[in-house]
């Protein structure tokens, strides 16, 4: 019989909490080491155009192997956010993206790359300045001519736009003036109101995979995808469908005003070498 109160119940609760705290502290410490020892790796998930299934873009996804096993970003990103480590990690990811975009342009295989940005990287004026400065200096260093900012997309979440801070809006305006694209990731899963879409400087919406993966479940779920796609169109935003895994999902998405498709049906996230080979194959054949 299960006792919810009493000595045993209390001890069990306490022990779980302690184990969680120990795991968090351990991962935080290991992440600090990984940052210094090149322990992080970037994976690339190709995004195809709905029209012709050519690879036009890719999303960069952070990977971290600890003692031979991958730790899920769903576990380590929140810890990086709470500890502030996400700031140097995010900077590292963006610098890699900028260098690679430059490499693509030089070898005449222009692929756009998107990177995820945490709300925590924008929290105050100082962080915002650092953010701007690091993109600016890295793009200047890695490119002899003008850096093609239009090939860089920053994926933000709805929570960022919920923050009523004027300064975040100004930051995004500035980045867009350079040509950087702003994308709203996991669209439809946040708690935000839709009103921000009318005012906020964004270019793109990524329909969260939760919506796509329910397409088979019936008309009401299809109607939601349809509504998000047509609203985005009316606002002149481009639309990516995330998490397309099956032929049925693909067939339905193709009937919608969706520009791009990201999902296991076409490609899973892959290591850099594999991605570079794929890009080369596409452009050279
Ligand atoms: P996200 O930005 O929404 O990235 C898409 C996630 O969906 C990735 O999970 C990708 O592997 C997964 N995915 C793509 N297609 C499919 C599909 O067809 N089916 C299924 N089941 N999943 C699919 P991943 O790589 O585990 O990343 C999880 C989250 O971690 C990301 O979600 C993003 O929020 C965060 N993340 C990853 N890298 C970074 C980073 O460099 N910085 C920050 N701040 N967050 C990151
Ligand atoms: Mg993303
Ligand atoms: Mg997403
Ligand atoms: Mg996400």
Automatic annotation (TrEMBL):
Q: Where is the EAL domain?
A: 24-283
Show which residues constitute the signal peptide.
Answer: none
* Protein name, entry field: Diguanylate cyclase
Organism, by scientific name, is: Shewanella japonica
